[in-house]
Amino acid sequence: MSKPDRNASPEAILSPTRTFFATTKASMGRRLFQSERNAGLLIDVMRSLVAEHKFILHDFVVKPDHLHLLLTISDGMTIEKAMQLIKGRFSRRLREEYGRLGEIWQRGFTDSQVLDRKSFVQHQAYIALNPVKAGLANSAEEYPFCFTFLAKQKFKRKEQAGAKALHSFHNMSGTTEVVPFHKTGLSPAEAS
Q: CA 109 to CA 57: how far, in whole Å?
């Protein structure tokens, strides 16, 4: 008797890490995240959870009344626990820092497991285009409450810092030409 073919590699079957696309909404559809203060607080909460290694956040967009995430969790973490951490910490901080009382989040959330690269890319494209389709921005790079915008801002700051450092170096060596680091052949990581 022959062994049946397997579509997935044994490593993927046994892998404790799982990637999900998840969506959660504000209670009663309130536009709780339309303010820069609240959207920024939610982003800060996610950033702190990533820094604590609770999960890997690949992409996100904070819309006025809901949140889309693309995240990977590891062994010992469930998608339910990851969402509870985000929602619970945001609610607590909103109460402590701004005195907000009452329901913050709608109960539950939706999620779908991302099983392959194609699905990952499709969900990432959905997240990027979400504020554009809603008429909140002309491009993902313009919408301030998403991963694309924040990554672009970080890249700009590094590029500016790299240009200043190169400018100083060239001034010391007798030339005044400013050469942005992307023209030096270095990657952003190598240049920082």
A: 17
SS3 of residue 180 by DSSP: coil
CA 170 from centroid of its chain's CA atoms: 36
Mean pLDDT score of the chain: 78
Degrees to nearest 5, angle at CA 104 with 99 and 108: 155
Strand order of the β-sheet with 56-62 is 56-62, 66-73, 18-25, 110-114
Q: Is the pLDDT score of 185 beyond 80?
A: no
Contact (Cβ atoms closer than 8 angstroms) between residue 89 and residue 45? yes
Structure token digits, residue 184: 């030096």
> How high is the pLDDT of residue 21?
96
- Options 3.40.50.620, 3.40.50.2300, 3.30.70.1290, 3.40.50.920; CATH of 12-137: 3.30.70.1290
pLDDT at 168: 39
